[in-house]
Amino acid sequence: MAKPHDHTDTKSAEGRAPKDEGLEYPGAVPVAADELDVISGKDLDRQRAKSRREGGSDAAGADSENPLKGGFGAIRQVRAAAKRRAEAHDKVRSLKAELDESQKVLDHRTKIEADYEKIVAAQNEALLVQGQTSARAQAVIDQQSAEKADLEGRLAQMKAEHEEQLRPYRELMESTKGRADDAAKTLADAKRQAKAADQQLGEATKRREQSMASANRSVDNSQERLRKAEGELDALKADSNASPAVVQKKQSDIVAERAHLDAARADLERVTSECKQLVDGAQANLAAQRRALESAETAADVAKREADEHREEYERLYNAALASEKELSDEIAKRDRAIASAGKEKQDADARQAEAQKLLDEATEIHATPEVSAELAHTIAQGRQELEERMKSAQKLAHEEKHLREATRKQRFLFIGAIVLALVLVALVATFVMRTL
């Protein structure tokens, strides 16, 4: 709230330096008329006489001196007059704004003083009500905070108990899961070994078939050659012209071929025996691997079933413990919401209480200082008078500016025309010079 300064000394307008500004700060009001920049009637007369002397001397000088110099001086005079007029109008606007602001302050003080008793009663009632509301909210906060602390302690203890109760079940679940993982790895190895044994049996069977086919072909070839040689020998014996040496040679070939046939038959028996042993060994290995696979599958199934049972048991107990903890967590969350709500209620009540105290203090201060309102009204009245004087001064300066513009119009137009003519001549000369180059 803007308040006037307590000035007890009053100075005359002639005994102090004139001010360029209006009031000391926005919203303030002058405390006395002689504190303002008052333009008296004598000041106006002196200003008019000075303007006439300057206007007359300048006009005469403009007629007698160089027209350019006189026109330039006239323009400067008009600009100076316009500046004085603008400054005067600015001061009028500034003072008017300050007086309006001061009037608002006075109106506010007047209204407060008129409603003082009602304001005091209403704000005291508000202080009482809001104080009680704040106290109730604080009591709720204290109660809910205590309950929250108790619940948090119970929750921490419950979590510790649940951890202790669940530890054996978790360890059992983890151990059975480890055994199930090991059994699964063993089963995977057994499957790979059974597959390898099956492949070995296939390779042994294929090798037996190939070896026996090759041995049988050797026996068949030897038998075919032997039959052919015996047929040829019979033909030689039937031929009376056959040479004994040829017959003897063929007989020798037959003996050799019989030896080859015996060797081929012996090789067939050996290959048959070896291939049988190889296939029998592969079959035995496959049977053993299949038995191992069945055992691994059974062990893996048992381990997995056991691991699943212990995992389900642990999860059931864990979920039950989690549900119990959630009940306490929900109760804690309820206390948090109640504390937040009561805190907001207390904050609002405290704010309303502070506002009521502020209004009460303001009303008390205004009621206790009626002289401030009276002084403010007095200074506003003085300011109104000063505003009227400033408005008259501004109007006078505007009139003088208009008169000066009319009196110097000829000189200013001649000056401007001369400048334009000079620019045209310079342009013509420049054009001529450019064309001659």
From TrEMBL:
The keyword Disulfide bond does not apply. Keywords: Coiled coil, Membrane, Transmembrane, Transmembrane helix. Residues 1-22, 40-56, 174-192, 222-237 have a biased composition (Basic and acidic residues). Residues 211-221 have a biased composition (Polar residues). Residues 78-105, 279-404 form a coiled coil. The keyword Protein biosynthesis does not apply. The chain crosses the membrane at residues 413-434. Residues 1-71, 174-251 are annotated as: Disordered. This is Uncharacterized protein. It comes from Parafannyhessea umbonata.
